[in-house]
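Example record used in the benchmark description.
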Amino acid sequence: MEFACPLFYDLTKNEIDEILSRSVNEVVTFEKGQHVVRQGDIIHSLYILVEGLVRTEMVTKDGNVVEIEFIEPVRPLAPAFLVATENRYPVDVISMQKSEFYIIPKTLWLKEMMNNEQLLTNFMELNSNMTVFLSKKVQMMSIKSLKGKLSLYILENTTPQNNTFILRRTQSQLAEYFGVQRPSLARTLGDMIREELISIYKREVKVLDRGKLESMI
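Model output (structure tokens):
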């Protein structure tokens, strides 16, 4: 299971097992609906999700809740903030189903990275990729129309070579992700289907006109 974690890319199973045996000092389980961490909590340890599903959301100064992403195993929580000067969680993390975490104290994780160049490289690459993800999130929030936001979301989850993807979110969760009411989302998706921009069968979304979707961003 740990091989799927981007922190451990290009490490052997023995290397991973040794790192985990030295550094993991606790395994914690959270039930559905429980907060794993709260926005503003100080980060003392690296949390690695190994089973389950969690969502992250941010409360703005105006009191609005903005969903950031769903996190599936095997992924760490906010790894860049572990070593930040302002080392506090930027989001609430809520368990969407029974979820299990490996907890590694910050000092032990830093020691492991100092002794393993590949582990350090993976950590830096993961944090760089998260910066790219957040910049795309900001781009989406700057788009005014819901159709434009949906177009960007669909394009980011597909490629010209693979023009379908499975929606992991329900319509209610997707509406919350975009900060709109569910009827508005359903109406806009219906418009996009009628305009033959996309098709939806059960949870599978298929891009029919990539060029028009790109023109809406």
